[in-house]
Design brief:
2 copies of one chain form a homodimer.
Chain A lengths: L7 H17 L6 H8 L3 H7 L3 H5 L3 H13 L7 H17 L2 H13 L1 H25 L6 H25 L6 H16 L12 E7 L4 H12 L7
Protein name (chains A, B): TetR family transcriptional regulator
InterPro entries (chains A, B): DNA-bd_HTH_TetR-type_CS, Homeodomain-like_sf, HTH-type_TetR-like_transc_reg, HTH_TetR, MftR_C
Organism (chains A, B): Streptomyces fragilis
């Protein structure tokens, strides 16, 4: 599936809208004002955007479709949490590819409660898309749907934490580097979605009291590791 | 701080509103209709509720205030994640204490997009309240704000997973029992908010490949444990 490139009229509408929002304020700008400045008819606006709010987040519908397609294209054996993290990088790029626009919009959404609500619904749709993928892939795990929902929320929160810091600093610093650190934290907590009870993998986790004598620790590890190389 | 008990006029407004919402639909009901049925003036409505949406979620302002107070009352040495989990139980009780009302509202919010948006903003305010508490208590941990945001989101997602299942099943089953299981999953993943890299505590976590030779595992543990009893 390929996505049609953005038509210039659409770009012109976004540009006109933001010029007016910044000049006279969001509430004081009507769709009428926007189409007049862009030099197009009112109908053209609604061909591209569902509402005035829609023009503030012009690329999310497309990115949501891309993310959905990206997730559905993953192989059965693939780590679903890793795939969702990859999708999150795609979403973040929507902001970091255009810092000036992203920072302008951030200032706008901070001051207009209606836009804040709209943004929450956009974030929620990403979260449900991630959760949907994880629910499907973790269906045979105990509490698969719970795990899916919790991991999706954690991944989105990690993304948002990085995004907000970056926007607050007016696009300074490398958000893509910061998000790696944030996603690593989430992945350390949840692994591949199996969580603390995973058993069939190549990794053993031993938790021990700091003051435990070494012989006791070794015994614990031996029992966790199971039969050694020589016994197999 | 004590919270005033609910005045009967407020209850009467909620009751009238829901009767009309169910009879003729949410969009078709005006504030005028609600005050007429309740037999009070229009001003009384707006004394209790900021908007028509507000009457659909009549108890959340109060519960948010209670949760904020509950969190701020926790001792310095207390596990902040445990405290947030306790606050989540308070929020869930708002629903489970009144199953009929909760299920009615769930049906309503499912069909009215504006209410769904309002609900998202309510959930978001709880999440930010939890995150605020965790941010304060994890301030001296590495990436404290990130941890706080991620854990708050995970806790809220766990709550919502349980709540949605319970509402979908029309209030069948014990949601308070289910939420314990869900919160246990989150707490297993994040512990007390220290996460995988905590260092100043009495517990050492070693992750090792299953096939690693024992001498290598022992060496890793020794370095993680630091100087042994005899060297201290």
């Amino acid at each position: 599936m390929s996505f049609p490139s953005k038509p210039p009229m659409r770009d012109a509408l976004v540009e006109a809208a933001f010029r007016l929002f910044l000049e006279r304020g969001y509430e004081q700008t009507t769709v009428e004002d926007i189409v007049t400045l862009a030099g197009v008819g009112r109908r053209s606006f609604f061909r591209y955007f569902p509402s005035k709010e829609g023009v503030v987040f012009p690329d999310h519908e497309r990115r949501l479709a891309e993310v959905t397609e990206f997730l559905s294209g993953s192989g059965r054996g693939e780590d679903p949490v890793a795939r969702v993290c990859e999708a999150v990088r795609l979403v973040l790029r929507l902001y970091t590819d255009n810092p000036t626009f992203s920072v302008q919009r951030y200032r706008l959404t901070k001051t207009v409660p209606g836009l804040r609500a709209y943004e929450l619904s956009v974030v929620w749709r990403y979260e449900r898309t991630f959760a949907g993928h994880l629910r499907e892939r973790l269906a045979d795990r105990p509490d698969g749907a719970l795990r899916a929902d919790v991991i999706a929320a954690a991944v989105v929160a990690a993304h948002n934490n990085v995004l907000r810091s970056w926007l607050r600093s007016e696009g300074e610093g490398d958000a893509q580097v910061a998000v790696e650190r944030a996603l690593a934290y989430v992945r350390e907590a949840f692994g591949d979605g199996g969580g603390p009870d995973r058993q069939d993998e190549d990794v053993v986790v031993v938790v021990s009291r700091r003051r435990a004598p070494m012989w006791q620790v070794v015994r614990e590890i031996e029992s966790a590791l199971g039969p050694g190389e020589e016994d197999r």
